[in-house]
Every structure is written in C-alpha cells, then in structure tokens.
Design a protein that fits this description.
The protein is an alpha+beta fold. It contains two helices and nine strands; from the N terminus they run βαββββαββββ. The strands form two sheets. A six-stranded mixed sheet has the order 4-5-2-3-9-8. A three-stranded mixed sheet has the order 1-6-7.
C-alpha cells in the first residue's frame, strides 16, 4: 500500500454517514472496506458520479476519513470533487445519495451528470 494522504476535501453529511454505516452492516463489510467515490466521462453534461464499496486502497488514491468511514478517491476524480458534500435523500423526489458539488457549472435535469 502506498503512502496514505489524509485530506478533508469531501464531506459526508450525518444522514449519508448513517446510510453508509447501515449498508456496510447489512453486507458484513469490515471497517477497512472503503467507499470509493469518483467521476467518469458520460451523461448528458459530460461527467457522472460513481461510487461503490472497495476493499482496496490503490496507488494514487487519496484517503478521506470521516465518521469512521473511509473514502477512497483517485487523483483525477479528486480534482472534480474538491469541496463536494455527499448527502443522502429519501424524500418525495427519490431515495439515494446525492453529490452537492460546488465545481459543477452545469447539471442535467436528472442530477446524474455534471460539467465544469
């Protein structure tokens, strides 16, 4: 494992943290499993958010720890996600994780993609 960098460029709301812990418990994930968040090309605005649980910290990743949650973010994605807040919503408009990204200059109608 390469050197771990600890930064707080992405924050997790308490509602999102509660949901992440719930998912981890339901799937019997150990605390060293991280939540990988990132971006990839695609969507109607150019970039889409991706996230999933990953047991592996990779070379070039940044580790962000908050509320006993390990976020793994690759270097390219971190550039687009700096200052982002990961939230969870369960309102009338749907249920799921949302990214409140101050770097997004445009978003699509469904909120699944963004552009800078």
């Amino acid at each position: 494992m390469s050197e771990i960098q600890i930064q707080n460029d992405i924050t997790i709301t308490s509602k999102a943290a509660k949901e992440i812990h719930k998912i981890m418990e339901e799937n019997n994930f150990t605390p060293d499993v991280g939540l990988r968040v990132g971006v990839k090309g695609g969507g109607c605005s150019g970039l889409t958010y991706v996230m999933g649980f990953d047991p592996e910290f990779r070379e070039g990743d940044t580790l962000i720890e908050q509320d006993n949650i390990r976020l793994y973010v690759d270097g390219k994605s971190l550039f687009y996600l700096m200052g982002t807040e990961l939230d969870f919503t369960d309102g009338l408009n749907g249920k799921g994780f949302t990214f409140n990204n101050p770097n997004a200059k445009k978003t699509c109608g469904c909120g699944e993609s963004f552009g800078v």
